[in-house]
Amino acid sequence: MNDKYLTADIIRKWRDWLEEAVEDPDKLWGRGAPEDLLRWLVGKNLIIYNMHYREQQFWVDQPPPERDQELGVGRYIAWQTPLHREAVRQALREASA
User: Fold this and answer.
1) Vertex 69, ends 85 and 32: CA angle to 5°?
2) Which 8-state DSSP code applies to residue 73?
3) In the chain, what is the straight-line distance between the N-terminal and C-terminal CA atoms, in Å?
4) Which residue, 78, 82, 71, 84, is CA-closest to 6?
5) What is the dihedral of CA 88, 90, 95, 97, to 10 degrees?
6) Any idea what DSSP says for residue 81?
7) Tens digits of residue pLDDT in 38-52
8) How many degrees, rounded to 5, is the angle at CA 22 between CA 65 and CA 12?
9) Model pTM?
10) What are 1-40's pLDDT values in tens digits?
């Protein structure tokens, strides 16, 4: 990931939270995740925070699944795309090397 977005300082500061979030974005929900981290992730358009209800009445056909781990979609938080999540995962790996 481009260094101007995910720097070594950011990884050092929030590594544990980011590692949990790439596996399950909902780990950032209601567990005391740092507000600065959440603002940063939303501000960089990496996650969607506070997903809208997925009730049948809001959809033309089938609502999306409540959770989809393969795509990085949790009940309350989702990665913008699987590519965003993989970019963070790769940056974490590179920072460990």
Assistant:
1) 70
2) B
3) 15
4) 84
5) 160
6) S
7) 999 999 999 999 877
8) 155
9) 0.83
10) 444 478 888 899 999 999 999 999 999 998 889 999 999 9
